[in-house]
Amino acid sequence: MTDGVGVELENLWIRFGEFVAVRDASVNINGGDFFSFLGPSGCGKTTILRAVSGFLQPSEGRVLIGGRDMAGIGPNKRPTALIFQNLALFPLMKVWENITFSMEVRGASASERRRRADELLEMIALEGQGNKLPGELSGGQKQRVAIARALCAEPDVLLLDEPLSALDLKLRQHMRTELRAIQQRVGITFIYITHDQGEALTMSDNVAVMRAGVIEQIGTGHAIYDLPATPFVASFVGENNVFRGKVLEVKGDEALIRTNRSGDLLAQITPAARGVLKVGDDAMMFVRPEAFSLVDDAGAHAGKSLTARVVNEEFEGNSYSVFLESEGGKRIKMSLPNVGQERVVSTGDDLILKYELRNAVAMPAGELASE
Amino acid sequence: MRHNVLVSRLALGLYLVIFFGYLLGPLVIMSMTAFNSNPFPTISPWDCFSFEWFQVLADDERILRSIRNSVVIGLGTVVLSVAMGLAAALLLTQIWPRWRATYYTIIIAPILIPGVVLGISTVVFWDRMSRFLGPATSDLFHNGIFLTVLGQSTFIASYTMLVFVARLQRYDPGLTEAALDLGATHVQAFRKILLPFMRPAIASAAVLAFLASFENYNTTTFTFGRYPTLTIELAQKVRYGINPSISALAFIIVMLTVFFALSAEAWRRGRMKMAGQAGGDPVPQRAGILPAFLRGNWAAVVLVLFSFVAITLFWTARSYSPEQCKAEVRAAKQAEAAKRREELLRRREEMRRQQQMKGPDIFAPSGRPAAPGASGRPDTDRAPFGGVFDPGNLEGQSGTGNAPRDGSPPQGGTEPQTGAGTGAENGEEPGNGGNRTTPFGSVFDPGNLSGTAGN
Amino acid sequence: MARPRLFAEYFRTNGRFLGITMMLLVGFWIIVLILLPQLSMLDFSFRYNLPPAEQGGPKDVYTLDNYRHLIYGAGGGEGSYNTVDLMVFGRTILAAMAVTVADLILCYPLAYYLGQSRGSGFVRLLVVLLIIPYWINEILRAFAFRIIFADGGIINAAMMGLGLIDQPIDFIRADIALYTGLGYAYILLMLFPMYNAIESLDRNQIEAARDMGASWVHIHRRIVIPHAKPGISSGMTMVFMLSAGALAAPQILGGPSSLWFTQLVYQWFNNSLNWQQGSAYAIVLLMASIAIVLTFMKIFRVNMGDIGK
Fold first, then answer.
1. CA-based nearest distance B88→chain C, Å
2. Which domain holds residue C283?
3. Interface with A, mutate which of B170, B181, B192 (most A CBs under 10 A)
4. I need a labelling partner for C238 at 20 to 30 A (CA). Which of A349, B238, B361, B444 fits?
């Protein structure tokens, strides 16, 4: 999988007047990777994509594709193909003409284009639909046509700008699998833009999480989910319980934190903050809802347990969400798998929650993702 | 309550009748005058149903030449104003916001600048340019076609720009980007993506530009030089003496307009129906005698009927001859005229007898109201019509003082018999020379004939 | 710093060839067709009407004489005013305003009716009927009015036939033909913008107002007219500017003793061959019309952007 063409961003800055859309972004995307930029809307991820595809000139820094500096090279000369958020299928052209547009502009003959269109239509399971207009297709079909059109250009890098956002939930989940399968089949680099962490985690080899023009963390889905580098990443990717407090003690990679409302708790320091987080610092500690489990006795789990009273409980199909409040008034969420039990807890119960050390992450305090 | 609804419905109906009467009535009457053999365009004394004015029109070299000029100028204006309007509309979507309002004001302003101002400024500017650049440019910069195309395009481009802006609002710039991304050059993206999208707008802008150019008068009247357009030629004709061949032309233009308006509407409805069917919205299929494309499309039905009537009319025109009717009318009018002449002669005889008793000065305009504005009118522009109408003409002195100054003879002069006949019809109060009863002034008055004869 | 970047951005979006072509076309239009001719006419209006040999010579200096002529007449002296031309100017402006208001009153009910009863075939038929006179030549429209208002025209004939009058009325001399024809000439430019504006008004607003007991007058004053304001002002601006600048209708339908200001311009230009004087009059016409339109736009708080919609 390393024979594809890689993309490098070197200290990329993009400004619009006074506004800084991308701030000093450096990323190294391996050839053949499925790489996602994840972040809330307005974080600059689409701007990066436009800089890679050539619609934007960076204010500073370089974009390299396959090691070649792309400065001054227009979008039509770059080995990239972009799938637009609204797909941008040409409404007046038939499906097969849409798909083979890149061949048309290179002057390929109609019969050659027809042949290639048929191949690609077969690949996206739309055989025989080539003579329709895009307006006559369903959302999912349009989606696949857009992919085929981009692939027909035989790009080294395929750029996808939230292509699934217009689809309904079922179709979106189906298309995730399909996109991943296509990527593995064609073996080229995919750069995927999304604000949906589910999409990013399921499909990507590597993910970059962005906030306000800054790349906060780059890593595998696992690394990002389990060891978030910043409070923003921790709160943006997946659900998390955040405990604020001060560092009481640092022991190797572990820290004991005096939380404001839940007593003293132990956590591992996230790799990015090791050696940075010092005693007395303001810190944040994160424990995911599914990391909690119930125990009868707090004694055996000193520093890794807390007591709280059940406020509310919601059934979500595959799990129960239990909302609790600690003695200090801290609200906590835990999730318990539904394995057939009638009911786990009831409102008003006092429970003892415990977690494993590897499931608690501590880092310097910072800004959270706004809900 | 019901009473109120009825009253308001009636009021609405009456209002619609009045409004559309005002809008269409003049055109209908003008069209009808094309078929009256009466040499003045009128329908009230209806002489004979006749196609002769179409023949007069077809023989009019100047009209035919001016149509050619109009077409050439129209095409030039279409090309220039569509190109400029499209470029300006595209720029409007890209210009940085701070300048947008100013830019829009500048490119919309030509619509509001009076046409005469545009015409004058165009002529003045290019005259000075030719002086500035030397005699080599003089021919081009004083060329009527060149100046007219530029003068008209100045404001017609604003119209086309508006058409393009409306269409561009629905264009997704992402389509152009997608094309570029797929390897198209900018020119390819423009030609293959934007232009096909703009095609309907370009078509309507071109039609709009051509029609606006074709009917423009205010600007063209300063710029046309040696190439008068149809509108200019028409204005000359209307100002310096009118005859029903203009009505004939108007009739043709009205018919063409109706035809195109109906075609456009029928086409629009046809497309709407097709779209409805494609969208899975079944149109109730009423079995009927009408073919499919006419069903539920009143415009198409009217269009077919209209074409049928037009063809019938054309065929009638080829075989129809109003000669007998005209002869009858002529005879009737001659008889009338003869009677009037006798009457006149008798009165003159009487006057002579009185004069012999009283003294000289028979032709003095005694007992008549003074002729207001009959002389010393400053503007030569519209003397002819006013002059012809002038009561001062109304005795046997035609051609002495108030005749049209451009020298073209009034129509009555060319056809004395009809002229006399018509005059006779209006001369039901013989001897009442001071009354302005005749529609064409004194030139048709039988008094002219007898008067000249008498002198 | 910002400027060159924006140009770079412009050429990146449009490509060099298209970018330059577009700039050339728009530049040609704005500079060569719009701005320079107006400026050169303005410049001309401050010059003497000299024979070609003396142009550019020592006598070719700037002067206000051409404007003075409009106010004081040929003498240019004090005391006596050029009452003829000033009267013509005043009447042109006032009559154009009157025509505008008359067209507004005539069109408003129809615009409302068409705008609010959507879709039906009858309404489409009416719209098609409206479009037909719109595309008939201006000259022919004036000609039609001359036919029906002539002494022996249908109106006189009908009124005499009914015994209402026993002598034909000279509609031309009384300027009735002119005002009717002018109102007719641009009536659709009043109707269509208003119709478009009213069409976009949500019917529910009217029903809601009615539901709350508002009278029809109130509904129009508080809901329909405020909503249609851009269309109304656009229509009024166009009709006023075009009527004040009309030439064909006054030439064909004007009475012998009444002139339209454009006719003075025309005479200076084409009959007297005094382009400088004609330019001055044209400038006066242009400035006066623009000033009036801008004043009314200020009073009624309308933007330039509404014009042409």
1. 6
2. 65-306
3. B181
4. B238
